Amino acid sequence: MPSPLLSFFSGRLAGRRAIETIVPERTFDDVILPPATRATLDQALGQVRNHNLIFGRWGLGERHATGLGLVFNFAGPPGTGKTICAEAIAHALGKKLLIVNYAEVESMWAGETPKNVASLFRAAAEQDAVLLFDEADAIAARRFGRTSHGLEREANTTVNVLLRELEGFNGVVIFATNLAANFDPAFERRIRTHVLFEMPGIDERERIWRVQLHPTKTPLADDVNFRALAERFAVSGGDIKNAVLKAATAAATEPGPDVGKRIHQRHFERAIEEVVAGKSVMQQSLFDGDVTSSDDPAVRAMQAAESRWRSTAIFALAVAGTALLVAVGALGAVLAR
Ligand SMILES: Nc1ncnc2c1ncn2[C@@H]1O[C@H](COP(=O)(O)OP(=O)(O)O)[C@@H](O)[C@H]1O
Ligand SMILES: [Mg+2]
In this predicted structure, what is the pLDDT of residue 320? Predict the structure, then answer.
């Protein structure tokens, strides 16, 4: 039975759930990784398997009650396969995967994060699930030296609670973070292995394009050339996935009977161009946005609002000034009588 915490937060956010338990379907066959990443992951999986043997079947877990969990950090840029690999690990272990989108829950939990983090561990233990803290960069942050702000104090307590829970949890915990994640040293000591997820090279990209399609059912035109796409577009696996879905939509919405529809090279090219363009627009507005330039419609709107506000303020001042003059005049008249 799902814990009240989980059912409360499941489905709270449109589209994606902030916390959900899934029965993993995707396996390592669905993931194309550079050889070094793959090797580290295999090693991690080996550790988990030995761990289950030693502490489970050989009974040592019953003799030694703490420090039994295995903690991994998957670090890398967005769309490089961290989430899908956590799923593949859970699948390989025959366990469920409890996914916590940490970036989302932390803001929902304002004030209650430590308590809720503790119940996540309980839920994972009850369900014998691998626990994934996805987008967990904030969790990894250093404990603050001085704790003046309430928020800082909460972050501090959260890390302490996490350390305590990790200590008592006999299972697998995975943190997915970006490369810049800055771990508290005490936290760092609990992490067994950092697995580095790098951007795919040309060979990997070519294979990712293929693995995103159905091997027999997806209708491809003869001109499709994944090698050319892989060479031309240095993108992440997540970008390729998005482009494949866009290309398929474009091909499907073309006129004509369905049986004749094929995804052509031009569909893939246009789709990946759109994905790349969409990302650069986002980056521009996030990082390079020149707020003083009035070319930007948003900035112009802000400036217009400000000048409206200014004229309103001047008008109000003028009214107040006139009222004051009238009052002084009236007072003068009264006194003069
Ligand atoms: N290395 C990869 N091999 C195959 N597919 C990938 C790979 N990386 C990303 N993808 C595709 O992109 C999607 C998003 O990737 P995800 O695992 O969420 O990336 P991350 O967690 O690193 O942001 C996946 O569901 C998968 O379809
Ligand atoms: Mg992810």
Answer: 84
